[in-house]
Amino acid sequence: MWVIFYFILFSGGAFLAYQAYQQYQKTELLLDKGIRTKATVIQLIPYRSDDGTTYAPVFEFKDTQQQVHSFESSIKSSPAPYKVGEKVKVVYDSKDKTNVKTISFWGLYRWSVILSMVAAPLIVLGGSYLWYIYF
User: Fold this and answer.
1) Starting at the edge strand that comes first in sequence, how are the strands of the sheet with 87-92 ordered?
2) Do residues 118 and 22 lie in contact, with contact meaning Cβ atoms separated by under 8 Å?
3) Which of 34, 66, 72, 87 is most buried, most CB within 10 Å of its CB?
4) Which among 67, 65, 69, 66 is positioned nearest to 39, based on CA atoms?
5) Beta partners for 77?
């Protein structure tokens, strides 16, 4: 019975590690094929919760055809990470203008890091038990 449990742990960890790798590959492809430009912070949207207020910046940038696009960052923090009017480097997909990322470690690799952090203990726990039982 425990073998099934640890196999599920190991399998879940392997799946999350694969997803982390996929996110990393998508980011690397965006950096390789995407268009880099500067965006301007046009607004800070406050989000209130029991823990306090966090802020999500809204960026605006022009594509190669000089059309203006805006996007809200999914990263919220307190204090606000940027000031209104601040310029930030971004990269976007020329075919899908909604695929935009800020050029910073957390802006580019947050999902790869988060998924890897969850996957690692699952792989170690499940894999160690399975290794112990079968080898």
Assistant:
1) 68-72, 52-62, 35-49, 87-92, 100-102
2) no
3) 34
4) 69
5) 55
pLDDT tens digits, one per residue of 80-95: 989 999 999 999 999 9
- Give tens-digit pLDDT for 85-123: 999 999 999 999 899 999 999 999 999 999 999 999 999
The single-letter DSSP state of residue 92 is: E
What is the spatial distance between Cα 115 and Cα 72, in angstroms, rounded to a whole number? 22
Q: How far is CA 86 from CA 32, 92, 126, in A?
A: 25, 18, 46
CB distance 98 to 90 below 8 Å? no
In the three-class reduction of DSSP (H, G, I as helix; E, B as strand; rest coil), residue 34 is classed as coil
- ∠ Cα 62 65 69 (to 5°): 30
